[in-house]
Amino acid sequence: MVAYSKAALATAENDVVKMRIGRSLPPAAAPVGWADLWNGVVGAFTPRASVKARQDELRRELDVAHVFPVSSGKAALHLTLSALKTLSAGTEVVIPAYTCFSVPASVLNAGLRPVLCDINPATFDFDHAQLQDVLTPDTLCVVSHHLFGIPSDIERTRAACGTRHIFVIEDAAQAMDVGGCLPAPGTRGDVGIFSFGRGKNITCGAGGMIVTRSDAIAAAIETRYRRLPSPGWWEMVKDFAALVFMSVFIRPRLYWFPAALPFLRLGMTEFPRTIRVRQMSGFKAGLLKNWRRHLVQSNEARSAAAADLGARMRIRVSDDSPRPLLRLPILTSSPYEKHKIYLASKARGLGVSVAYPTSIDEIPEMRHALDGRTFPSATRIASRLVTIPTHQWLLERDKQALVNLWRHRSA
Questions:
Q1: Bridge partners, residue 389, by sequence
Q2: 134 — phi, psi (to 5°)?
Q3: What is the dihedral of CA 406, 337, 272, 207, to 10 degrees?
């Protein structure tokens, strides 16, 4: 990682107020309204009907044969990996060297060995020349992500894996979409996973989903899925309270309050040491009753914001635009510039995030499972990337402030 002046960073830190009071943008957000909360309460009293309704809707919209709603996106990946283990002798899972920390955590928690492949820094997809080299007879599957909503070349990954009988898991946790050209993100691999977490395209606070067209994979998942516990009433009460808090304080005029509470650790990226795998509760399934309408509205707003900001900042993030980017990724010129932009944004409440702080090989909890190789592109991205919010609460004044921050970054 490129070194930069600690003194320079200390000088920049002095310009940031310790606690900002006033309008502040969350780095990522999805709305939850009072009607959604009421639907969640109804779902809590009719759990089987609510979960089945969401399964039927999602099966139809995504044109898949099997849908498994679970407690989180990482639970979806963990359950998928545990099921695939029974269909193959493979023990290795190939993942991008720069991705969400929950991905390698899920691999380890499933009792499998993560194998890293460097990325293409322009797309966050695999460096496909290197992907060919890391596939071995021990490879169980490849996890291909659509990071920030930028599409990866799933067909190319499938072509590399198909002749070797290697499964492809499509991680669409940050790329859920409907209404466009089929197949939709998450449905092109052997199995796909989605997340309904707090900052995703749509949310129920925390939730996830597995989809597949394969009867064999579905049968392996079903064997484990029906043994999963369902959340109890006390857990649903806690979820309700957390979602009420989120629905109020995720709004920019109030977000400064939770952002100032260090124990909430908002914006912190942590490696989950354990992963709880549960079926989705009736409360959360009910809360997602209007998921399609929310998703269309969210993605329209994100597509427009990403296209507008990209054009004004003269940044090209995808060959296929506009895209409903969960956040707009921008590569700075140095780690110092990255940190300076982040601090300036924090002082002004503009919601710029540092994204994932390291490549996967630099996570301390991962070092025992890896072979010591380095991944230059992933390391460079981790040290220089920032992301900009694209959600529907951006006003024109926010966009202009973000554009000005980017244009004057060297001042």
A1: 327
A2: -95, -10
A3: 0
Most confident of 321-325, 331-335, 406-410: 331-335
198-243, pLDDT tens digit by residue?
Answer: 889 999 999 999 999 999 999 999 999 999 998 999 999 999 999 9
Cross-strand partners of 141: 93, 167
The residue type found at 398 is D
Is the Cβ–Cβ distance between 350 and 25 less than 8 Å? yes
Helix (H, G, I), strand (E, B) or coil at 168: strand
CA dihedral 199, 326, 357, 336 (to 10 degrees): -120
Q: Strand 208-212 to strand 191-195: parallel, antiparallel, or no bridges (unpaired)?
A: antiparallel
Q: How far is CA 174 from the centre of its chain?
A: 4
Closest CA to 201 of 146, 252, 238, 245: 146
Q: What is the DSSP string of 286-350?
A: HHTTTHHHHHHHHHHHHHHHHHHHHHHHT----SS-S---SEEEEE-SSHHHHHHHHHHHHHHT-
Concatenating the DSSP letter of every residue in 239-260 gives HHHHHHHHHHHTSTTTTHHHHT
Instruction: Determine the 3-state secondary structure of 282 from DSSP.
Output: helix
Looking up tokens 């399934």 gives 285
Is residue 395 pLDDT above 80, yes or no?
Answer: yes
Q: Cα 5 vs. chain centroid, distance in angstroms? A: 31
In single-letter form, the type of residue at position 18 comes to: K
Tell me what the mean pLDDT of segment 62-72 comes to: 97
The helix (H) or strand (E) run that includes residue 45 is helix 34-45
Q: Model confidence over 304-328: pLDDT tens digits?
A: 999 999 999 988 766 656 788 999 9
Alpha-carbon span 359 to 406, nearest angstrom: 24
- Residue 185 contacts by C-beta under 8 Å, 6 or more apart in sequence? 146, 151, 170, 172, 175, 176, 177, 192
Closest residue by Cα to residue 374 from 384, 360, 385: 360
Task: Measure Cα distances from 272 to 108, 202, 268 in Å.
Answer: 10, 22, 12
CA distance 310 to 330: 9
In whole angstroms, what is the distance from residue 399 CA to residue 308 CA? Answer: 9
Per-residue pLDDT band for 144 (boundaries 50, 70, 90) equals very high
**Token pair recorded at residue 219:** 């049968």
Query: At which residue do the structure tokens 């293409």 appear?
Result: 120
